[in-house]
Design brief:
The complex is a heterodimer. By secondary structure, chain A is an all-alpha fold. Chain A has helices at 7-22, 24-27, 39-68. Chain A has a domain at 31-65. The chains are: A mainly alpha, B mainly alpha.
């Protein structure tokens, strides 16, 4: 059977989903414009970068777990 | 030379250079089935990466995204969210898929279903559905090519004529050189595409408004509602956004070609690392949106929103630059169209026709059948492209509604021991039928939700309930 992902990694992955998808009615607005860009577009651009950070942390978690469980798969 | 001659000459020059590159890459290798479809399994990491990236940035992101920014406004933002979140999903599902693939020698998505659920009928259904929903994706690319030639010829060449020419070039390209050609042309295509996006996204707002900030200020002033949801539509609100982002981000790797590309990676770890970095690739899309939004104020009243990007480029830049952008766009349509027809044709021949109807077929015969199917498939997509007037984004959403119906079978198969063949099969059939029914009766969106998402929920529910009922029955029979 396949190894399940760790809870920590799943929680980290939930952050971008909450920020870019479920919370849309909180940030879908034009004002305040940031750097001349409407707020909703700026929010998404910002979260693309933060998502990479979240997934990098998830990667470190999973890699550490693989190491503890012996060897690289 | 007239402006249209300049633009067209440069487009054909770029397409010609791409085709030469492809033919060179495919030359002096014997083209058997394995070599033609999976490059003889000899692809390095770089080539795999290029192939995957080549599949991501298609006419959809180039003309479709800007087209929706122009004609729909706010709802177009779903594209930035779903591409990013698709990689988040891939972080969890691709490594175990790769793992199964390595252990059991899987090559396609159908193979996965055959191995996990032990049914050749389920595998055949997956193969047929996957191939069928690739057709609108091919249609999208052909329509894009038609638009490019139409705009670049200053409306001198009719779109239908342009599409026939485009299909002939794509089919010739696929038949002559196969997947290796496609991967190498991707390099040229991606480089041109990133440059084009930056040049347009910065250049167009600067030329018409004096900067990106000034462009948005002008747009917010002239059309205050355009930049938020539901934008210029009346039924694409927040519920549609959430359901569409979920549907498409879960479905991203359910496309037969994307699913299969997982198996070409060297290790599961490489796939996870890819998932961390790939979201950054999505940033280029913002620039495409800038151009589409600029056109709302600078070039109002276009009948077809998908023409917005090229029309605004034509209005802002000299003809030679329109040619460069058109050439980049043409490659951006041709490479994916080649990958999709190749995938669909091979799937049909290898995973549907041979196992069910002609088990004695040799690999050579399968390859011949697949080539014939490439021609047939291109012709079908061309016919649909000529007679339909759907926007590029709507075409892709239809494809997603279909292929995402594989998701429950994949994710339950990976992580839930008690899932049964009957549950997955019933759920999938119900999901696909719901999609077809809602699409044909034009009930998308349904109650403000993406119709494909509604079908996906039904699919999940049936798969789980039927599996649980079967577990219960088997437990009872054990007790008796």
């Amino acid at each position: 059977m396949i190894k399940r992902p760790s809870l920590g990694a799943l929680l980290l992955a939930l952050i971008p989903f909450a920020a870019m998808c479920f919370s849309v009615s909180l940030w879908d607005r034009v004002e305040p414009m940031v750097l001349g860009i409407p707020f909703n577009l700026f929010w998404l651009i910002g979260w693309i970068v933060v998502t990479t950070l979240c997934m990098w942390a998830a990667y470190r978690l999973e890699a550490a777990r693989d190491k503890r469980n012996g060897g690289i798969r | 030379m007239s402006p249209s001659a300049v633009a067209l000459a440069i487009i054909f020059g770029i397409v010609g250079a791409g085709a030469c590159l492809g033919f060179l890459a495919g030359a002096h290798r014997k083209l058997d089935l394995e070599q033609w479809t999976v490059g003889g399994r000899g692809f390095g990491v770089l080539l795999v990466y290029l192939l995957m990236a080549g599949e991501v940035y298609t006419t959809f992101s180039f003309l479709g995204a800007s087209g929706w920014a122009y004609s729909r406004g706010g709802p177009a933002l779903y594209i930035m969210a779903y591409l990013t979140l698709a990689y988040v999903v891939s972080f969890f599902i691709l490594p175990p898929i790769w793992d199964l693939g390595r252990r059991h020698g899987l090559q396609t998505e159908s193979d996965f279903f055959a191995q996990r659920y032990g049914s050749k009928y389920l595998a055949a259904f997956v193969c047929l559905t996957g191939a069928a929903f690739l057709v609108p994706y091919v249609q999208l690319q052909i329509t894009g090519l038609g638009i490019i030639v139409e705009v670049a010829s200053f409306d001198g060449i009719h779109r239908a004529t342009a599409m026939v020419m485009a299909v002939a070039v794509v089919a010739a390209f696929v038949l002559a050189s196969g997947v290796r050609a496609v991967a190498w042309v991707s390099v040229l295509k991606d480089a041109l595409m990133v440059l084009a996006a930056l040049a347009i996204g910065i250049g167009v707002p600067y030329f018409h408004f004096g900067g990106i900030g000034k462009m948005f200020a002008a747009l917010a002033h002239a059309h205050p509602a355009h930049l938020t949801m539901p934008g210029a539509t009346h039924n694409l609100g927040h519920a549609w956004y959430i359901s569409t982002v979920l549907l498409t981000s879960l479905g991203f790797y359910m496309w037969p070609h994307s699913f299969a590309s997982t198996f070409t990676a060297r290790s599961g770890d490489i796939i996870r690392r890819n998932a961390v970095v790939m979201p950054l690739y999505t940033l280029t899309l913002a620039f495409i949106f800038f151009a589409g939004f600029s056109a709302v104020v600078a070039l109002p009243g276009l009948a077809n929103g998908d023409m917005a990007l090229l029309a605004i480029v034509r209005k802002s830049f000299p003809p030679w630059f329109l040619g460069v952008i058109g050439g980049a766009g043409a490659l951006t349509a041709m490479v994916p169209a080649a990958i999709f027809t190749l995938t669909a044709a091979t799937l049909f021949a290898k995973n549907f026709y041979r196992p069910l109807f002609a088990p004695a077929m040799t690999d050579d015969q399968v390859a011949k059948l697949a080539r014939a199917l490439v021609v047939l498939l291109s012709a079908v997509a061309l016919g649909l492209a000529i007679y339909s007037s759907t926007t590029l984004v709507s075409l892709l959403l239809l494809g997603y509604a279909g292929v995402t119906q594989f998701f429950p079978g994949v994710v339950l198969g990976l992580f839930w021991k008690r899932v049964t063949l009957r549950g997955v099969f019933i759920g999938m059939i119900a999901g696909v039928l719901t999609v077809v029914l809602l699409a044909l009766t034009q009930h998308d969106p349904l109650f403000g939700l993406n119709a494909g998402f509604v079908a996906l929920c039904l699919n999940f529910l049936l798969a789980i309930v039927v599996s649980l009922a079967a577990n219960r029955r088997s437990a009872e029979s054990r007790m008796a």
